Amino acid sequence: ETYSDKVKRDERYKKLDNADIEKFKAILQDENSLLQDAGDLEFFNEDWMRKYRGQSKLVLKPKTTEQVSEIIKYCNEQKLAVVPQGGNTGLVGGSIPVFDEIILSLASMNKIRSFDPVSGNLKCDAGVILENADNFLAEKGYIFPLDLGAKGSCHVGGVVATNAGGLRLLRYGSLHGSVLGLEAVLPDGTIYNSMHSLRKDNTGYDLKQLFIGSEGTIGIITGVSILCPARPQVFNVAFLAVNSFEAVQKVFVGARKELSEILSAFEFMDGNSQALAERHLGTDHPIESGKYPFYILIETSGSSKEHDDEKLETFLGNAMEEGLVEDGIIAQDETQLKNLWAWREQVPEASTIGGGVYKYDVSLPLKDLYGLVEAVNEKLDAQGLRDPEDESKPVVDAIGYGHLGDGNLHLNVAVREYSKVVENALEPFVYEWISSKKGSISAEHGLGFQKKNYIGYSKNDTEVAMIKQIKQHYDPNGILNPYKYV
Ligand code: FAD
Q1: Do 243 and 310 belong to one domain?
Q2: What is the DSSP code string of 359-413?
């Protein structure tokens, strides 16, 4: 599927010419910072799901904030449209161009700027890869307050631009709380420098919040200042099987109460997601993938092994006694711990097993969370579209998993190919269902291109109008990330 099936190129935007290229060469002063070969452009033009493909002819990789500013100022004057790109792991088609927009990649802005070992304040360029930031922090005894499956590729600036949630939001909270300051280039080239280190600062509007989750629509984030917690010294992982979604919720309530401050992740996966993961990973499931309808991964992290082990064992003993948990294992070493996490973290990859995946990342009241997966499967079955084995059916399976502790479900519809029939069965059905339960159509991935027409299911008219006013104020020429949600 290409974007351009759905929208037309806006002729207000200038088409790139040789004078523009010469200008960018003069700003960047380095041939390698400017990519024009078709082969080099491929990665930047296609999204992670291989669902959307753009047609950009130019990738710019500035090394400094000043270069970003000069580039953007020129693009604004010339009305050249620009897509900011981090690690290109976004899941809503927001990071790649729709037509011929210039791609501004932050990949060459990848330096740690400073770290304060007393407060845990990290300042870095936006293009630092999340895993590199975390490895740097590990050496200092600290941890990045966010972790997700794409950590090896996504950028610190990218996770801020999407306000990513991830696996440990339950423990460390949202980036709206942990980001202390930002540096960003506005669409007219102005450098907004707010790389503060303060936890408390009530002097007027908290402007940095505007950029957190803005998905590249009002500025290019070039620097991030973030508060990092001390790295826990002991991690435990328990992997459990339960018989109903009600039991999943009861185990969650118990975990919060009994594990309290050491609980750092509570993830759930349905049986079908584990069956796909088993096919994908090619190894035996730690419990038995097809036997139970739901599985839970609980992580604890703290500073005393004895204390944490005892708490976890007591909690699991109680849960088993109450008949909530059918089967379970606790990781005995680091390797087993990583292996157990793989059964959760590999589900997104496993969902692409048939060839493609429709992804819905939604917030719902906990009691309704799994109802969406059931409703979708019923609909697909009623239309004869789903079969895990039958290659002639377009849908392999619709599976559910996610950050249960945050009320966040990932509904993945694994398909053998992207098709209008499946898309029409899913949309707007999924969005209407979520809206009827007062949920959000995007818990953490954002709106990008995929959900641009559906914002009305989660925001009212006044909210949408205010978003447009902000966009209009900062980007009156609309050069930043056009054709997307705003
Ligand atoms: P990109 O994909 O390059 O860009 C994403 C958006 O941000 C685009 O709109 C882009 O224009 C904009 N952008 C990027 N960098 C900048 C910048 N410096 N300034 C301004 N705008 C910018 N998300 C979660 O929230 N939780 C998860 O658990 C999670 N798990 C994932 C697992 C996998 C395997 C994958 C592939 C993705 C997952 N994601 C998850 C999606 C998540 O949105 C991205 O991984 C990440 O937040 C995007 O970072 P990125 O650097 O790749 O940004």
Answers
A1: yes
A2: EEEEE--GGGTTHHHHHHHHHHHHTT-B-SS-TTSSEEEEEEEEEGGGTEEEEEE
